[in-house]
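Trying the structure run again after the queue cleared.
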Amino acid sequence: MSTSRPNILWTVSEDCPPRFGCYGDPLATTPHLDALAERGTLFTHAYSPAPVCAPSRFALLTGVAAESHGPALHQRATPPLPEGMATYPELLRGLGYYCTNNAKTDYNSDVDPQALWDDSSRTAHWRNRPDGAPFLAVFNYDPTHESAVFRREEFTVDPAAVRLPAYLPDTPEIRGDLAHYYRHIAGMDAFLGRLLAELAEDGELDNTVVIHTSDHGGVNPRSKRWCYDEGLHVPLIVAAPERHAHRFPAPGTRVDAAVSTLRIPPTLVELAGGAVPAHHQGESLARTSFDTDGALAFSMRGRMDERPDLIRTVRDARYRYIRNYHPHRPYGTHQAFGWLAAGYRSWETEHLAGRLDGVQDAFWHEKPGVELYDCAADPDQIHNLAGDPAYAAVEKRLDDALRAHLLAVHDNGFLPEGSPAEGYHASRAADAYPLARILDLADAVGLRDPARIPDFRTALTDPDPTVRHWGAVGLLALGTGTLTAEAVAALRTAARYDPDPQVRIPCAEALVKHTGDPAGAALLAALADPAHPATVRLAALNALTALGPQAAAPHRDVVAGTAAEPHEYLGNAARYLLLRIDGSYTPQSLVFDIEAMIARATAAGHPLAT
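Done. C-alpha cells:
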C-alpha cells in the first residue's frame, strides 16, 4: 500500500439531486453519505456544467466545458477530442495509477473508453490492479437515472409527504415521481456503503480519498435539461483520510461557495501528484479555504435530443442569473424521452385542460430573455428579479461575469450545429468565429426590442454566416406586427438566396410568423428532406413545429416520411408534429417502451451521424 499518494474512489449517482440527509432532506435514507459528509467536506452549492449527462460527462472527462468544443455541448454528439487534450484517466495512468471505470461512459465524443482506462466494464474494480499500484476507481450508479421514475415499484416514502415545488401542480403522478425516487437514492447510499466496506476489507480505507457527486440534477419536471438549480445542483462530498486531510477543510466542514464539478478533474490530477494541464478550465478542490463571496459556477444548455435550445447561466452562493438566447421558444417543448415520465405528461395534461395557475403555466410559454433569482429567498426560482432596480447591481455583476466566461471558454454554442467552425481548435482559428460581435447580437435577441431591427437587418448581409444567422433569429424573436417593410424584404432575400441553410431556416420561420407567407413553410419542408444533413433537417422540423400545425399541414407527406425513419431524433420530432397536424396529439401519444427506443436508436446508428 502506497502512502505518499492517495488512492481515489469516485462514485457518481446518475441524474441525482442532493436529496440526502446531510443536505437537510428529512425523507432521505442516506446513512453512509451522511457519515461520509461528517468526516469530509460537503459542498452546499455544487453545480454541474450542464443539466444532462453527455455534455456534463465530456466536461468531467476532459476538464473542459463542452461548449468550448462544439458539438460536444449537444446531447449525443461524437466530435473527436481536440488534438493534444489528454483526459484525466490518461493523465493518472501516466502517473502510475491503475484506473478503472464501472461502467458508464457517455463522453459525447468519439473516444474509445477501452483506450482511456485500464478497465472500463461492469467488472472493473480496484481489486484487479497490480500489487502496490495506487488506484483511481470510478463507479457510476445507474439506478438513480431519470428512467427510474418511468416504472413504479413499491413506495418507500409516502407521496403525500414530499414537498412540491411551486411551479408544479399537485397531481398523483407528479407526487409519485418525486416519492418513488427516494427508493433509488437509498439504493445508491447502500451501494456506496458496500464499496466503503470493501475498502476497509482491503486495508485501503485509510489511504483513499472518496468523492461522491452526480453528473447533473434531476429528475422531476423542470429539472434535468433545464438551467435552474433543480437541473444543475448536485451533491459533492470529498472525504480524505487523516494522512491526506491537511489538503482539505477540517472534517465536517460545509463549504457554501459556488463550485462547479468541472473542478473535479484538476483535483484528481493534483491528488495524484501531477501538474494540472493548461487546458483545464477549473481549479482543484484540494484546498483548505474557498471564497464564498466571489466564487462562481457556470453552466449551459444546448440541444437536448430532438429539441435545440441555447441557455447560459451563472450561479454564486445566493443568486442564479440566466440568459435565454431563444426566448421565442417555450420552455415546455415536447421531448420524447422526458415524456416517458408520468410527471411531464400529467403537467401537460393540466396545462391543456386550463387547470394551472400562472406560476405553473409559465413553463408552457415563451421565455424571458433574462432571468435572475434570489435562491435563498426563492428556492423554487419563480420570482424573476431581472430588470428590478433593487437588484441592478447584482444583475450587472453576473451578466458581466457570464459574458467574460463565454469569451474565455470560446463558447461554440452560438454556432449552428454542424457549422464548419465548430470545434476547440477550428473555432479559434483567425476570423472563423467572431464571438464578441455575435454575442452583441445574441444578447439583443433577448431584449425583443423593435429598435434593434436595423442591427438585425444589417446582420443579414454580413460576410460571416453565424452573424447572419443571429440577425435572422433577432427578427424571428420579435413580436408579430413589429417588422418594417425593409426587414421583411431582407428576410425574403436571405430566405431565398443565402447559401447557408442555417440562415435560411430562421428567415423562413420569421416570414411565416410575421407575414403568413406559406413560401416560408415550403422552404422549411424542403430543408427537412433527406437530401440535407440531419442537423439541418432537425432545425427545419423544429421551426415547422414552432409555427404550428396549420402552417405545417400542407407538408404532411414530408413530416410523415420523416416520422417513419429510424433516426431517433428526427423520428421523434416528426412523429410529434404529425400528431399535431392530424389533431390527435395527447400527452400520452408518444409513450413508448424504453427497450424499443434503445433498439431503434442502435439500429439507426448515432442519432445525428447521418
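The chain has 21 helices and 13 strands. Worth checking whether this holds up in the mutant runs.
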